[in-house]
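[User] At your convenience, examine this fold.
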Amino acid sequence: MNLKLLEALCGVSSTSGNESEMKNFILQVVKKESPKWKCEPQVIEGEGFQDNLMLVFGNPSIAFYSHMDTVGFTTRYQNQMVTIGSPEPKPDDVLVGEDSMGPVECSLKIEKNGNVHHQFGRSIEPGTPLTYKPNFKQKDDILVSQGLDNRVGIFVLLELASTLENGALVFTTYEEHGGGSAGYLGDYLYKTFGITKSLIVDVTWATDGVHLGRGPVVSLRDAYIPRRIFVKRILNILEEHCLVYQKEVEGSGGSDGSELQKSALPVDWCFLGVASNYPHSSHEEVNVLDVTRLISVLEILSKTL
């Protein structure tokens, strides 16, 4: 498993609505690595797909979705900032970005009313997206970085790509701030390839029932409810192969699966991911063993689901 790739992914800025740099980075990885893969994919991107990207392998019957965007901030006026998605800022966090006057590296100031301001040596152009400064590190089995949600998902799909023979890898936009792209991408995949099975590969929150180091997470529901017969089929496959995993049950939250469920498509979906501590912060944590096990789970599901 190439953790250097995951670190590089965490260093790419792509807040919601600003995912083009990440898409281009993934395209560079595909160009370099795909000759070594078991099957070379058809690359689908460009006009009509905004900043989204799809890699289609063989004769696909299943799609794997991971979103390319992260939470962050947009500069406003008088040093004010507004959130992108739902970041969890701390007063000592450092943000980075760039406007027409050059690179930006600034600190956060959080007022008693919760409003967030930046502290920088000059004004920053309104509308500039800022993200947590990259800080990737490993402590034993724990990976720590900003943006693991959802750089982990992108990384897992790129690892899966090396063995995938039939399937579609879908890299989406806007998931952290309203979603929307998974719906029309799912429509394209359904009408073009007849794909009706979708797995959402993402990062979820550690809770009293979901913990780091205890295997990948299969979500039975969040604010939305996937079709139970489809989820049970996934669980049966994991049990048959004696794979370690955790079940998640929540009443809130969502993912690209929400967009598929709201679409007018007969498409099944299920969320599979890894648990994280300190989500949407400058120091998210995941367990490296959970990541490796997730890759193994997806490899098996790509052949059996």
Notes: The chain has two domains: 3-70+137-304, 73-132. Residues 73-132 form a domain with the Elongation Factor Tu (Ef-tu); domain 3 fold (CATH 2.40.30.40).
